[in-house]
Design goal:
By secondary structure, the protein is an alpha+beta fold. It contains three helices and three strands. It has a three-stranded antiparallel sheet, with helices on both faces. β1 and β2 form a beta hairpin.
Length: about 90
């Protein structure tokens, strides 16, 4: 079982601006200088998927998420369940 300090909270959202791109924010990595801006940006968008990734091999999980975002921004349709399934063992 992972402790709260051993995982990172994320949200994938779609911007509601002209570009309408999918983006990700890693809430537990935000610093004081960017926290308010990034949270406001995510809140202004359309929520798509959220969860936690394990900090163990977090870079691999982030690479999976970035690949998913590229596919979704390229027009591929995925459900939140598909994202969590692709994260597999990296999801908390």
């Amino acid at each position: 079982m992972a402790f709260e300090s051993d995982k990172t909270m994320f949200e994938i959202y779609r911007e509601t601006t002209y570009a309408s791109e999918y983006r990700v924010v890693y809430f537990t990595e935000l610093q004081d200088h960017n926290k308010e801006h990034e949270i406001n940006r995510a809140m202004a968008g359309e929520h798509f998927c959220d969860g936690f990734i394990l900090d163990f091999e977090k870079d691999k999980a982030k690479a999976i998420i970035e690949g998913i975002l590229l596919r979704m921004n390229g027009g591929e349709r995925l459900a939140p369940e598909d994202i969590l399934r692709e994260l597999g063992q990296h999801a908390a």
